[in-house]
Amino acid sequence: MFTKKILISVVSALSLTLVGNVSLALTLAEQKGLDISIEAKKRDMGWQDNTADMMMLLRNQQGQESIREIKMKSLEIQNDGDKSLTIFNKPRDVKGTAFLSFSHPVEADEQWLFLPALKRVKRISSRNKSGPFMGSEFAFEDLSSFEVEKYTYKFLAEESLNEVKMFKVEQYPVDENSGYTRRVVWLDTQEYRVYKIDFYDRKNSLLKTLSFMDYKQYLTKHWRADKQEMINHQNGKSTELQWSNYAFKTGLSDGDFNRNSLKRAR
Known about the structure:
- By secondary structure, the protein is α+β, with helices and mostly antiparallel strands.
- It has one helix at 2-43, and strands spanning 49-59, 65-75, 83-90, 98-102, 110-115, 120-124, 151-161, 164-173, 182-188, 194-200, 206-218, 222-232, 238-248.
- 16% of the residues lie in helices and 44% in strands.
- Strand 8 and strand 9 form a beta hairpin.
C-alpha cells in the first residue's frame, strides 16, 4: 500500500511538471512571436510619408483580367496607426474613386470611400471590414497598416521558404469584427520582411494567401515589395498589385489626408 501511494505521488508530480513545461513553452512561443513582430515594425519606422503608383490586376477563375491604375499616398503617424489615401485613375468607370484609411492600434480603424457615380462619401463600418475592396480579393481590413497591438502572437517555427530562412508566426486578430480567425506569417530572419501570409476564415479554413515578391530597399532602410499577389483558394480568383515610382519624405502632411477633400483627391 505504501509503495502504491509513493507511485501515485511520483506520477502526480511528473504530470504537474509536464503541464508546467507545456504552459511555459506556450508562453515562450507567444513572447517570441510578439518579439519578432515588434522588431519587424521597429525596423520600418521613420519613413514619414510616401507616394507610389500601383497597377491592380483582377483575375477570375478563367484567367480573364481587368486592370486598374492607382495612386497611393501614405503618412506615418507617431503613436498611432498610419493614414493612407488610394486614388483610382483608370479605367473610366472607377476614375475618381478614392479610399481613405486611418489605422489605429487598438480602436477600430476609420475608413471612407468616395464613389463619384453617387457623388458621396461612404463610411465603411467596422462590422463590414471583411468585405471585398473594389471587387478585389483584398478585404478592407487588409488595407490597414500593420500595428502590433492588433494581434496576439505565437511563434511556430523557423523554416525555409524559397531557400530563404524564415520565422513562421501565427497572428490572432484582437478585433471581434475581423473576418479572420488567424493569419500565419512568414518573415525572413535577416531583414524581418514579410514574404507570405495565409489567411484563415471564421470557420478556420484557409481562405487566401498573400505573397510578396521583388523587394527593393529605399533610404538604406525601408524595404518594399514591387509585387504582391493575393490568391483566394475558395473562389479561384486572384488580385495582383504591381508597385512603381516609390518616393519617400515628399512633404505630405495630415492635411493631405482629410475625408472632406476625398471628392477632390488627385
